[in-house]
Structure formats: structure tokens, C-alpha cells
Amino acid sequence: MQTKKIFGILSLLVAVVLFTASQSGSFLDPFNLENLIRRTSLFGIISIGVAFVIITGGIDLSIGSVICLVGCGLPWLVMVQKWPLAAAVPAVFSVAVLIGVAHGFLITRLKIQPFVVTLCGLLLYRGLARGFTQDQTMGFQSEYKGFRALATAEIPITDQFGIPMPFVLLVVLAVLAAVFLNRTIYGRYLLAIGRNEEAARFSGINTRAMILVAYVISATMAGIGGILFMMDSNFAQPSEFGNFYELYAIAAAVLGGCSLRGGEGSILGVLIGTALMQVLQNMINLVDWIPTNIEFAVIGAVILCGVVADEVVKRMAALRRAAQARTGA
């Protein structure tokens, strides 16, 4: 089933790439391709994180605000509070991890719905960022260029094209995530919880601990993304930084084969879904006859199509199993 989903979304990605290339000569420009790969890499990192939550049957709406909190908090600590960079990075990273722990605790111990917990987080973390920065734009100005190279540097391939460093980081994180999900018992636990949490608990799986792990992974990936987004742009306005990024991440995960019902998903599919979302956005900006103000309409349509397709596939599979059972009887 996952293989078919991946093949389908990959075919759609290829079709959109070919269409955009045929409609805009700027699409294959080396600068545009570099920027497209960099954006896909940054959004791919946060999409991998939310995929783990979706696989368990949960949702995380706080990703954009975690990105804002971490992305604004790092330069605030370094430039305003004069913390050394070596202390500020672990500090904001720890905040992201603790946010994941808090989400997992509230969801598993107090039995609060993930939608409510993470929606409150969406409001709370952005409010905190706007509070301690006094709504002032944060950035490193012209300092810490070596550190910022993690997001801005590239590996030269030709005179005009290079592989952005975030792509290298994405590959490393994606491999680790895929190994964890597909090659360890804990990944199987997450999938089992998504399919049937009660059955997983009765089979001896510590469902509370595993759900908490999923939310920690999501928040940690959002924290990494916040640092990288900050280093890439070198400025962050607390009222806008990371706005709606959770929608891009969720849409990419759903497109990539993660069922909102839980129990299904693959890291490769998420990466392809992320690439599709970014190519669609690039297409809207480059193709002259497509209005640039329909970006969010496209995101909404993509999520809706993903959910509808998932429901149709589920029902077709159920009908097929029922037909096979009648034939066998």
C-alpha cells in the first residue's frame, strides 16, 4: 500500500516539475533550483517530525510557533542577552525538547486531545516570543557567519550550481528517522499505536511513553528547523516568523502517505510530499498566468485531496477484503 502511495505522489511530483519547466524558463535556473532544494530541505526536516505524531494518530499544530520561539530566542540570547553561542544553542534546543515532553505528558497523562494541547501551544509559544523580544526583529546582523554557514553554505557541483547544506542535514536526519521507524521495534510500536492504541496497550506496548516520544521528535525537529530557518534568513519578526509552517508540514506528511487516522506513513513519502509542496509554491510564483495569492487555497486543496484519497483507498481495501472473504467462504 505504501509503495503505491509513494509511486503515485512521485508521479505527481514529476508531472508538476515538467509542467512548471514548460511554462517558465526561470524554473531550471541554477539559482532557483538551489533555492528550491534549500526550502524543500528546511520544510522536509519539520515534516519528518510531524509525521511521527500523525503516525500515532495525533496532530501537532504548534510547529510554526515552536519555530518562532526557537528562531527568535537564539539571536535574542546571543545578541541581546550576550550569551555565548555555545550555551545559547543547547538552551533553545532544550526548550524544544521540553515542549515535546510537555505535549506528550498533557496528552497521555491528562488525556487532553492533541488538537487542543497543540493549538494552545501555537498561541502560547508565539506570545512568549513576542513578549521577550518586545516584538522586535531578531537576527545575527553580520556576525556568526561561520555558524550560519550550516544553513547558507553549499557544496559546489558546477560553477553555477551547488548542493545547499540544509540538504545534507535533511539526508542525515531522514536516514536516522527511516531507520528508527522501519528498522527498530520502537518504530513498529508507533505504527501499532496508530492502528489501534488499545490493542497495542493490551499487547504490552507502553503506549504513553511511545506517544510522548513522538511529540518529542516533532518538537525537536521543529526546534532544529527554527534554528536553520533563522540562520538562512538572518532575521525573524516574532509576529510572522514560522506562520502557517505547520500547515506545510502536515500537508507534506499527508501527501506523502501518512494517514490522519494513524498507523501509516513513510519517511521517503514525506520527503516527496515536501518536495511537491515546494514545487507547487514555486510554480505559483513563476508561472505568470497563475495568481500568486492562491497559495493557501492550494495548500487547503492539497490537504483535502490527501484526506479524500486516503478515505477512498481505505474503503476500496475494505471492500476488496470483504470480497475475498466471501470468495474464500
Tell me about this structure:
This protein has 329 residues and is an all-alpha fold. The protein has a single domain (2-328), classed as ABC transporter involved in vitamin B12 uptake, BtuC (Orthogonal Bundle), CATH 1.10.3470. It has 13 helices and two strands, in the order ααααααββααααααα. It has a two-stranded antiparallel ribbon. α2 packs across α12. It is globular. It starts with a helix and ends with a helix.
- Classify the helix fraction into a percent range: over 70%
CATH architectural category? Orthogonal Bundle
How many beta-strand runs? 2
Give the percentage of residues in beta strands: under 5%
Say what the CATH topology is. ABC transporter involved in vitamin B12 uptake, BtuC
How many angstroms does the end-to-end distance come to? 25 Å
The biggest beta sheet reads: 2 strands, antiparallel
Q: What Rg is obtained from the alpha carbons, in whole angstroms?
A: 20 Å
Which of globular, elongated, flat, extended, rod-shaped describes the shape? globular
Which tags fit this structure?
329 residues; mainly alpha; ABC transporter involved in vitamin B12 uptake, BtuC; two-stranded antiparallel ribbon
